[in-house]
Every structure is written in C-alpha cells, then in structure tokens.
C-alpha cells in the first residue's frame, strides 16, 4: 500500500508540474500577442497620437528571429504589399522596438507611387521586446505587424571596433545590387530589384562604455539618409540609436537605368555620399 501511495503522489506531483508549465506557456503566448502589452499601449499615443492602427495586418509582413544570435545586430525584413486593384500607395514605414530606451528605430518616407515596398535592416534590441513595422498608406491608414524577439543588451553592447578605427573609416559607403530584377514596374514581384546600402559608422547609442576609460561614449549615429534615383526620391530615412553599428539597409526599387545616389548625415553634422551606376 505504501508503494502504491508513493506512486500516486509521484503521478500527482508530475501532473501539477505539467499543469504549471502549461499555464506559464499560455501566459507567455498571451503576453506575446501583438498589441497586448502595456509598453506598446503607453508608447503608441506618443508616436501616432490617437490614430487607429490595424494590427496584425495582412498588408505588412515582418520577419525577425524568435531568439537573436546577436542583440546588437538583429536582422529584420519587411514587405508592404497592397492587393491588385488597390489604388492606395505606401508613403511611410516606421520601425519600433518597444523596450528600447529610444523605441523608434527609424522612419522611412517613400517617393513615387509605391504599392509594393521591401526593406531589410539590422536593429539593436535592449531586452526581450516586440519589434513593430507600421506602414502608413496614402489614405492615412496605419497597418502594423509585430514579432516578439528574445534578445538583450543590444544598446549597451561594446562596439566591434575601437573608436580610433571606427572614426578613421566613418562614412565609407558600399552599394550593391542583391536581387537584379527586370526593368519595369517594381510592384510586380518578378521585376522587383533590391539594393544593399552599408555605411561605415559606429552608431554609438550613448549607452556603451569605453572599455579603457570606463566612461560612456557620447551618442553619435546616422540620423538621416536620402536615396534618389536620378532626381526621383526612393526613400528618406530619419534614424535613431536602435539602428546597428555600420547601418545596412536593403531596399526595393524600380530599375529604370538611372544611377542611385545616396546622401547621409550623422548627429555630429558629418555628411556622406555614395552612388551606384546602372550596369552597362
């Protein structure tokens, strides 16, 4: 009887533990639903006022790792695609990391009548947080999607290069075609071309410590980028401390045969330029 009693108690305890883990899993899942957490509810009015936002919108696709390998360089990829027959265009895209000290990572304003936009970059994530992509359409609609990312320490992580080396190469640009589509309407997926832009810059967040002096390094980051194709605006970006060191941005464009020119600047007033000439 004693043995049977022990076995029953063991099974009972096992069931209790399993139930506890199940409850935690449900709680965690609920906490990770887009728009469900208190941080976003408090943050949203500061960024968008009282404007309604369509959450989990099918118009916005956001890819981000569930658990980041490097919290200082979390890769994300966003696509905003309007359905056939929709006369609206994509005007802006705002990237937000809820739990970062400065949550708005960047805002992109697009030129032309864009109905399909793809954009990829790397973000710093300071602690477990939602990353959000909010698109603004030409009729004022705000459409959002979000992903919960497990990462921490990204805003205070030491820079990969020492300050002398970082400042020596600051502002150097690389532009290359990563997906060479056909000339024509960029809203058609089979014609969509992408260019990668990389700017050498430490993008100091103001939260990083000099490992020798043990003093905080003042914030110094790329805060403006303007990309034009000929005289036509592809996008203009306003950025913050949540963009990674050596900011890298992949973006879609319509390959019209005109050169792509980039003007950028940082918070210290430095100006940088680069260009990509069409093939041939």
Topology:
Layout: H1 2-31, H2 38-48, E1 53-54, E2 60-63, E3 74-81, E4 90-97, E5 104-110, E6 116-123, E7 129-137, E8 142-149, H3 163-168, E9 173-179, E10 193-199, E11 222-229, E12 232-239, E13 248-253, E14 260-266, E15 271-276
Parallel strand pairs: 1-8
Antiparallel strand pairs: 2-3, 3-6, 4-5, 4-7, 5-12, 6-13, 7-8, 9-10, 10-13, 11-12, 11-14, 14-15
Extract low-pLDDT stretches: 1-31, 182-191
Quaternary state of the chains: single chain
The tally of strands reads: 15
As a whole number of angstroms, the C-alpha radius of gyration is: 22 Å
Q: Terminal Cα separation, in Å?
A: 88 Å
Structural class comes to: alpha+beta
Structure report:
This protein is an alpha+beta fold and 280 residues long. Helix content is 17%, strand content 37%. It has three helices and 15 strands. The chain has helices at residues 2-31, 38-48, 163-168, and strands at 53-54, 60-63, 74-81, 90-97, 104-110, 116-123, 129-137, 142-149, 173-179, 193-199, 222-229, 232-239, 248-253, 260-266, 271-276. The strands form two sheets. It has a nine-stranded mixed sheet, with no helix packed on it. Strands 2-3-6-13-10-9 form a six-stranded antiparallel sheet, with no helix packed on it. The radius of gyration is 22 Å and the shape is globular. The termini are far apart.
């Amino acid at each position: 009887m004693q043995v049977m009693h022990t076995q029953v108690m063991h099974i009972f305890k096992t069931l209790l533990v399993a139930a506890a883990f199940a409850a935690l899993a449900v709680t965690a899942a609920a906490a990770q639903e887009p728009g469900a957490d208190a941080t976003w509810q408090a943050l949203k009015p500061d960024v968008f006022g009282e404007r309604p936002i369509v959450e989990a919108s099918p118009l916005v696709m956001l890819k981000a790792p569930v658990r980041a390998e490097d919290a200082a360089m979390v890769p994300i990829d966003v696509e905003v695609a309007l359905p056939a027959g929709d006369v609206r265009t994509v005007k802006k895209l705002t990237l937000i990391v809820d739990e970062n000290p400065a949550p708005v990572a960047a805002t992109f304003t697009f030129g032309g009548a864009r109905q399909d936009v793809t954009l990829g970059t790397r973000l710093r994530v300071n602690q477990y947080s939602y990353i959000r992509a909010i698109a603004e359409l030409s009729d004022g609609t705000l459409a959002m999607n979000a992903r919960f990312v497990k990462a921490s320490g990204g805003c205070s992580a030491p820079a990969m290069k020492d300050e002398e080396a970082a400042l020596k190469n600051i502002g150097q640009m690389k532009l290359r075609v990563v997906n060479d589509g056909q000339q024509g309407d960029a809203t058609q997926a089979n014609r969509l071309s992408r260019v990668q832009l990389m700017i050498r810059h430490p993008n100091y967040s103001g939260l990083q410590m000099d490992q020798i002096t043990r003093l905080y390094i003042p914030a110094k980051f790329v805060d403006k980028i303007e990309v034009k194709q000929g005289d036509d605006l592809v996008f203009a970006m306003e950025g913050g401390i949540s963009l990674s060191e050596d900011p890298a941005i992949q973006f879609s464009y319509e390959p019209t045969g005109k050169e792509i020119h980039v003007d950028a600047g940082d918070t210290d007033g430095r100006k940088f330029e680069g260009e990509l000439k069409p093939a041939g």
